Amino acid sequence: MSFFISQAHAQTAGAAGGPPGGDLFQIGFLVLMFGLFYFIAIRPQRKRQKEHATMVAALAKGDEVVTTSGILGKVTKIDDSYVVLSVTDNVELKFQRSSIHAVLPKGTLKAI
């Protein structure tokens, strides 16, 4: 019956254990990788989210803003969740507050 199955040989105890401290090295490597991932990806994203939340909370009537879709407008009315932008004469659009991308300096709309 051993014609199709090759015989298995037991390994010695030294070869199976690997180098001393191998398990500790693997755990340390995983912790190091998580720490690196945190400082490269998670921390900057949280910082940007916090800055965006403070910018949206500080919106006031009369601010000139740009939305995430690229529409420029002047804030005419603010609700809890929505902002009404005056895009041009007699045209007002309603957006969610989170869709505001940036607040522009005063006079930007007239310069464009």
Structural write-up:
- The chain has 112 residues and is an alpha+beta fold.
- The chain has helices at residues 13-17, 22-57, 108-111, and strands spanning 64-67, 72-78, 82-88, 91-96, 100-104.
- The chain has a five-stranded antiparallel β-sheet, with helices on one face.
- β1 and β2 form a beta hairpin.
- The longest helix has 36 residues, at 22-57.
- It is elongated and about 90 Å long.
- It is found in: Cell membrane.
- InterPro entries: Preprotein_translocase_YajC.
- Keywords: Cell membrane, Membrane, Protein transport, Translocation, Transmembrane, Transmembrane helix, Transport.
- It comes from Zhongshania borealis.
The H/E string reads HHEEEEEH
Mean pLDDT: 87
Distance between the termini: 86 Å
Tally of separate helices: 3
